[in-house]
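Action item from last meeting closed. Structure (223 res):
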């Protein structure tokens, strides 16, 4: 990222050394100092309570790897064609790589992440960011074959959808309904899917657009 920078001249060597000595790991990342560009006195660490060893299951819950902190194996290139369609690239990339091995965290501050209020991502509204994340998760859910990973990604997507609908009942989902229908046609465990839907959406009957709700129910009925 153009507005971030490394602070330790041995950063890359430390991470490469670790990966060379530990072939079971696919990604190595570290702590980052997060500062506000408008007020450099306001700062915090990126991963204050990070576990030293994680895996793809942990990564399904959230992206805790800062891009400028990561070094990873060349194990997923060339990238799949669908990757080119994504507007968010770092998290899907880490998910693809994490299929090949564990994730190591080095508890050293070796880079700075600057929050730039005029940056491309920072200037987007919260709802716009959430909708793009929902869209990105559609691609991951469609293309990851492991059922456990699919289930966790669906839970994550539903959480984002619930947040968006709770804040704005008229939210404009451009890709979510199609992606949702696609993935729910793709794999089984209907009882689990129904319970997830029911628990997430029963509280939002007054907010959820009727058209989307009817499409979801139709898919579940025809499964």
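Sequence:
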């Amino acid at each position: 990222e153009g507005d971030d920078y490394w602070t330790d001249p041995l950063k890359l060597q430390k991470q490469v050394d670790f990966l060379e000595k530990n072939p079971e790991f696919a990604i190595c990342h570290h702590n980052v100092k997060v500062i506000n560009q408008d007020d450099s006195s306001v700062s915090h660490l990126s991963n204050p309570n990070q576990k030293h060893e994680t895996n793809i299951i942990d990564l399904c819950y959230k992206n805790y790897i800062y891009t400028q902190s990561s070094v990873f194996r060349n194990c997923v290139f060339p990238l799949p064609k669908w990757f080119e369609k994504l507007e968010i690239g770092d998290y899907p990339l880490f998910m693809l790589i994490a299929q090949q091995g564990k994730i190591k965290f080095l508890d050293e501050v070796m880079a700075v992440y600057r929050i730039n209020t005029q940056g491309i991502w920072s200037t987007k509204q919260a709802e716009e960011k959430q909708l793009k994340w929902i869209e990105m998760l559609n691609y991951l859910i469609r293309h990851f074959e492991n059922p456990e990973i699919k289930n966790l990604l669906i839970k994550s997507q539903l959480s984002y959808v619930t947040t968006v609908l709770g804040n704005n009942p008229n939210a404009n989902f451009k890709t979510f309904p199609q992606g949702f229908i696609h993935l729910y046609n793709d794999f089984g465990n209907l009882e689990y899917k129904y319970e997830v839907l029911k628990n997430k959406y029963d509280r939002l009957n007054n907010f959820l657009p009727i058209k989307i709700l009817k499409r979801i129910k139709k898919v579940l009925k025809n499964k």
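Note appended to the action item: Residues 147-167 form the longest helix (21 residues).
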